[in-house]
Amino acid sequence: MSTQAKGLSIGEVSAATGLGVHALRFFEREELFLRPIPRSAGGQRVYEQADIEWLLLCNRLRESGMPIATLRRFAGLVRSGPGNEPERLKLLEEHEQAVRDKIAELHASLEVIHGKVVTYREHVEEGTAAGLWSPVPSGPAAGT
Questions:
Q1: Which of 33, 81, 116, 138 has the most neighbouring CB atoms within 10 Å?
Q2: Where does the HTH merR-type domain lie (predicted)?
Q3: Quick check: 46 and 40 in contact, CB under 8 A?
Q4: Are residues 65 and 10 in the same domain?
Q5: Each residue of 24-38: pLDDT tens digit?
C-alpha cells in the first residue's frame, strides 16, 4: 500500500510503533484512537501519520503504568476537542505524580539491592561467601 496516496497499513503502523497488529486492534476496540480508523474499499484499516504519533504517546503512557481506563478517558477528552484542557492537565499531573512515586519506590529498592551486591562482591572476592544467607533449618527436624 502506498504510504503517500492511500495512508498507512496496519503492518506499517505496527512496524512504526512497535505495537503488534493485535495490540492495534485492541486500541481500536477500546476507543483509544482520536478518530475512527477508516477502511479501504477492501476493508483494510487505513492510518495516518498522526495516528502513529498518537499511538507512540499512548504506548509511552501505558508503559509508564497508566491504566487503560485512564488512557481511555484521556483519549476521550482529547477527542472531544478544546475546552477541557484543565481536565487533561489534571489527569496528566496525577499520572506524572504516580510515575514519580513509582520511581522513588524503585530507587529505594535499587539502593537495597545495590547494598547486597556490594556485600556479596566483597565476600566473593575475599573468599568468605560460603554460608552467606544460608537457610537455617528450624523445628523438630533441625538436627537431621
A1: 33
A2: 7-77
A3: yes
A4: yes
A5: 999 999 999 999 999
Q: Does residue 72 fall inside a structural domain?
A: yes
User: What is the CB neighbour count within 10 angstroms for residue 76?
Assistant: 14
**96 Cβ neighbours under 8 A, 6+ residues apart:** none
pTM of the predicted protein model: 0.78
Q: Measuring CA to CA, how many Å separate 123 from each of 59, 79, 86, 133?
A: 43, 58, 55, 12
- What is the three-class DSSP state of 7? coil
Do 5 and 70 lie in one domain? The reply is yes
- Rounded to the nearest angstrom, the gap between the alpha carbon of residue 7 and the centroid of all alpha carbons in its chain is 27
Residue of 22, 2, 8 lying closest to 53 (CA atoms): 8
Domain that holds residue 57: 1-81
